[in-house]
Amino acid sequence: MNTLELFLTIFFAVAGAAVGSFLNVCISRLPEGLSIVSPRSRCPGCLHTIRYYDNIPLISYLVLGGRCRDCHEKISLKYPTVEFITALFALFLFWKYGLTLKYAVSFIFVCALIVITFIDLDHQIIPDLITLPGIPLCWLGAVFVMEVTWQAATWGLLIGGGCLYAVAAGYELMTKREGMGGGDIKLLAMLGAFLGWQSLLFILLVSSLAGAVVGIAIMIVKGRDMKYAVPFGPFLSIAAIAYMFFGPYAVDLFLAYSRF
Predict the structure, then answer these.
(1) What predicted TM-score, i.e. pTM, was given to this entire model?
(2) CA-CA distance, 42 to 164, in Å (whole number)?
(3) Tell me: the pLDDT tens digits for 130-166?
(4) Which of 24, 122, 127, 182 ranks highest by number of CB atoms within 10 Å?
């Protein structure tokens, strides 16, 4: 690794962590309908405004021992986790795409999925504020930047939203209770619009398998029954990001082995 590559690696890691700090604000405030611009970041316990030197991504959490300087209440591990994950993907996507427009678009896409994941985990909702504008924006980004054909992006949008809607409607018809929220349907439409219809089988298989494993584990550990709701948005998001990095290779490998 030469000097320039080292500098860019450090830069994108630091910048990614800083973006992750902003994503934490979105995760905390969007479900409450609050502004993500003002007021400045505050301790969720004592509501004291966080000093600028206590708001350095990752480092401040370690220096403060995971506690607020003023009230000494524990700060959720979620905050440095989001910053760390965002920094990692800032690096991974840079290594994948380099300093290109594809990098910028794909990083924004992943950031949206990080916000969706943690909001869904906390509140079991997927904000329309992200998915509704996200669907056309992802279609535009896919077609004009990511080199996905407009046919693939359009069919991805329609099939992605349509197949989950059919599953949700069928489940509700048979069980007389809602099994999947509309947020998941809009999220898969957004994913299909960005990644194309070819990604949908991979996303559905991986997310369903991961969701089933985690759901069963929760039922065993916590003694919950089958009616316990496990948010599906995080699994869809994880599967979509996995497809960005490994999906085409996994599909090619599957097709190669399926011929035998």
Answers:
(1) 0.90
(2) 38
(3) 999 999 999 999 999 999 999 999 999 999 988 877 7
(4) 24
